[in-house]
Write a structure and sequence with these properties.
Length: about 150
């Protein structure tokens, strides 16, 4: 699986998540401050580049960071086909996958500890999208909003 990942700031948290993804065998595509060759690192740019990579299927899923996570979430969700979810705990990540078919995980650099981030990643990657009729209808309705 290919994971696009971006942040406006490189921190212990971003480095831990990068390491964790590689240990899990994922191919990582870095953006923003996580890409040594990127001149543009601000959160609207790094988040939208991650989201675009997911939208055009260069990456299967994405992870974005900013100080609160709110700005990164807003920027990523501007890209058609993206359902970015700001998750502060594993249960929220699980729900975002089940009910919202979230394809971009958003983490707060300020509020997310490394231990919580690992729990969130465990929940995110182990939880499949719900395929029941009601949930599929909700995703269809979200897609209609993008038009």
């Amino acid at each position: 699986m290919r994971i696009a990942i971006g942040s406006d700031e490189r921190t212990n948290l971003t480095d831990m998540v990068l390491k964790e993804l590689k240990q899990r065998g994922y191919e990582v595509i870095p953006f923003g401050s996580l890409d040594d060759n990127s001149p543009e690192v601000d959160w609207p740019i790094s988040s939208s580049k991650v989201a675009l990579a997911v939208s055009i299927q260069k990456a299967d899923e994405g992870i974005v960071f900013c100080w609160t996570g709110t700005g990164a979430s807003i920027a990523a969700n501007k890209v058609s086909g993206i359902r970015a979810a700001l998750c502060h705990d594993a249960e929220t990540a699980r729900g975002a996958r089940i009910w919202n078919h979230a394809n971009v995980l958003v983490l707060s650099l300020r509020a997310t500890t490394e231990a919580i981030a690992k729990e969130i990643l465990d929940a995110w990657f182990s939880t499949p999208y719900s395929e029941d009729d009601w949930n599929l209808l909700q995703i269809k309705r979200i897609r209609q909003l993008e038009k």
